[in-house]
Amino acid sequence: MILLNAQSLPAHFDEVYNLVVHSDPLLVCLTEARLTEDIEDFEVEIGGYQIVRVDSKSRHTGGVIMYVRDSVEILKVYKYQNDMNYWFVVIKLLVLGKIYMVGNMYHSPSSSDSEFLEFFGQWCDSLEDMTDRGQPILIVGDFNINWLSKSTYPTKLRKLCMK
Fold it and tell me: Are 34 and 56 in contact (CB under 8 A)?
């Protein structure tokens, strides 16, 4: 699996393409993809991979995209966004007979941490409805909250992640 902050996939597509082609991961998660609805899938496709994306309304921030190798079955896709605050995609995958959930998140550093954490807390509370008991869940991305800080928002994020 690869996780990168793309800082604009259209501007760095050749570099991402070469990395994916040479490393052949099962899954690639890009944050801050800066894709908008006017950019078609064929413009950012990589042969042998399925695309799952949550677009931004701006080419200056936001958005996430996941490339999933064609041999991996995508069972379900959940998309969430609050433009200019967070973009989140969660996919339920079947890999070698086992089901996994993988999420890719981007939270803008210039937006409300409180609003983002309220959403993330509600999402964490809904996990029981989305998952089977004991199902592995992996959330990656760029939360733009300093995990090591002892202040209010990092403390709340750590508590949510430890549920």
Answer: yes
Identity of the amino acid at 2: I
- Alpha helix segments (H runs only) across 24-151: 113-125, 127-130
Distances (CA, A) of 156 to 19, 89, 124, 126, 150: 35, 21, 12, 17, 10
Predicted structure pTM score = 0.94
How confident is the prediction along the chain (163 residues), in pLDDT tens digits per residue? 999 999 999 999 999 999 999 999 999 999 999 999 999 999 999 999 999 999 999 888 999 999 999 999 999 999 999 988 999 999 999 998 989 999 999 999 999 999 999 999 999 888 877 777 667 789 999 999 999 999 999 999 999 988 7
Q: Check if the beta carbon of residue 64 is closer than 8 Å to that of residue 88.
A: yes
Return the DSSP state at 124. Answer: H
Edge-to-edge strands, sheet with 49-54:
2-5, 27-31, 64-69, 49-54
Of 123, 125, 112, 121, the closest CA to residue 157 belongs to 121
